[in-house]
Amino acid sequence: MKALIAEFIGTMFLVLLGDGVCCNVSLNKSGMKGGNTVHILIGWGMAVMVPAFTFGAASGAHFNPAVTIGAAIRGGMAWGQVPGYIIAQMLGGFCGAAILMVLYGDHIKATDDDATIRGCFATGPSIRNTGLNFLSEFVATFILVFTLASIPGDAGASGVSWVLVYGVIVACGASFGGLTGYAMNAARDAAPRFAYQLLAPNKGAKDPDWAYGWIPVVAPICGAICASLLWMAVFA
What is the pTM of this model? Predict the structure, then answer.
């Protein structure tokens, strides 16, 4: 139960801080509207590192179904724990997005474009191409999971591992963020997307875009599976 609570709160913090950056730089009337991609990269890297540092000892700081499935494949956790972890992560992601909608409620009201509002909570491709969009999320998550698996186990004792996590997130965003927004995480994308669908106001063209939204769910899991299998083949 301690681990599940940690995954719930940690994922909620991740979405609060990560999607909070997107709200901060995208929504009208925000004092930081117009912030650039560097602002977003630094913010998202910190959004993952801060809760990882806080909850890493309690749950392993997954906050991501793909990371959880990858850990189970590599033997880092029992498969019986996986459903609970994923449910906690998805609920945390939903709650984080819901809180942001309250905090930025006035700014959402001041923003007329539904797509801009959705983009604060869920990713989307810059060019819609199902095959390449899937491959982008697959590759980014493959690198994420393979790299996380390679961090020495004792690095967490000094906190070094969480700095390395920051580096991985920023590196993936710097290299792949312009393609699909580098979700790499269903709890970061599908859960806030669902919150947007249920809770965000309709400005006339509200569409959660589930026609694309399945990709940030399925592609990261596929990437995590392949990364874990290759990691075991190389290092186990």
Answer: 0.95
